[in-house]
Amino acid sequence: MIQVLFFAGYRERLGCDRLELDSSASNISELKEELAERGDNWKTVLLDRKTLVAVNQTMTKDSAALKDGDEVAFFPPVTGG
After folding, report:
1. Average pLDDT of the segment spanning 27-50
2. Four-point Cα dihedral 29, 53, 43, 17, nearest 10
3. Strand partners for 48
4. pTM here?
5. How far is CA 18 from the centre of its chain?
6. How does pLDDT run across 40-57, given as a tens digit for each residue?
7. Phi first, then psi: what are they for 12, rounded to 5°?
8. CATH number of the domain at 2-75, please?
9. Belongs to which family (predicted)?
10. Distance in angstroms (rounded) separating the CA atoms of residues 9 and 14
11. Do strands 52-55 and 58-59 pair parallel, antiparallel, or not at all (unpaired)?
12. What is the 3-state secondary structure (H, E, C) of the chain?
């Protein structure tokens, strides 16, 4: 199982803060594609190149490998002022 977390505006847009998935995705890119199939909001959030991702609390890229038991977090880019 992979634990998937959504933060900030993504949580509100998707109406979901976490999922537990039995996924066959071997990397972040494949996981994004799998989740994007859930609908337009999911596609907009997950396929946006600005979406940030962390695996096991470490920032990473879409090519990062996934394994059973990983925690994947998606969140929007941080803005400041």
Report:
1. 95
2. 130
3. none
4. 0.91
5. 10
6. 999 999 999 999 999 999
7. -70, -45
8. 3.10.20.30
9. Belongs to the MoaD family.
10. 9
11. antiparallel
12. CEEEEECHHHHHHHCCCEEEECCCCCEHHHHHHHHHCCCHHHHHHHCCCCCEEEECCEECCCCCECCCCCEEEEECCCCCC
